[in-house]
Amino acid sequence: MLRTPGGGAGHGTAAADSGLMSIGTVLNVLREEFPEVTISKIRFLESEGLIEPQRTPSGYRKFTAKDVERLGRVLRMQRDHYLPLKVIREHLDAVERGESVRLPTLGRQRDGDQLRELPEEPTVARVGRSELLAAAGIGDEELQEWQSYGLIAPLEEGLYDAEAVTVASLIAQLGRFGIEPRHLRVMKAAADREAGLVEQVVAPLKRHRNPQTRAHAEDRTKELADLTVKLHAALVQTALGVRLP
Hints:
single chain, Multidrug-efflux Transporter Regulator, Chain: A, Domain 2, 3 domains, two-stranded antiparallel sheet
């Protein structure tokens, strides 16, 4: 249950007259039902477009009761239905527009205290080798070279995930400036070390006996990955003395 200051209790319902709340107050409200939630998690959900809190002139976030109610729904749909954030956002936006929509079903759902398997729908785009070559505008020899340096790796079935297209396109663009694949091994090594740090942080969650805690591991991984990428970009910009738009 979520209980907002000055309001009554309800399952995901906040009092309309509770006024604006700081992120710290919102955290305390949510932790009654979601002990694992953090301020970073709330900020991450904001960056993903799940909520849009107001801002004071000095930049501080201020949340309405409606924001807290929506946050509760988001966290509950993640916990109980294992839905991706994009699917949750689209579903809640449709509900708020007054549309009659059914809750999407992907992967697993909670039925009481039991988890039941549901028919899987593809959530990650995958492309074949020829599609990757065409999308990145490269030849087969280039792809083989990049794979030899570990910059791109196919999946077990010989397909590539969607990120491989992005990586290939960026490598091709860097090549136009004379940066060769062998030069990019240092970037790959740095990315592997950063990924290892994130894995080290979430490892206890993945090993936890509580299934809900284990389910939160993926969300925590995404949250940390987002922060890591932003920090990496800021450090590079600082080192070069440039400011990107």
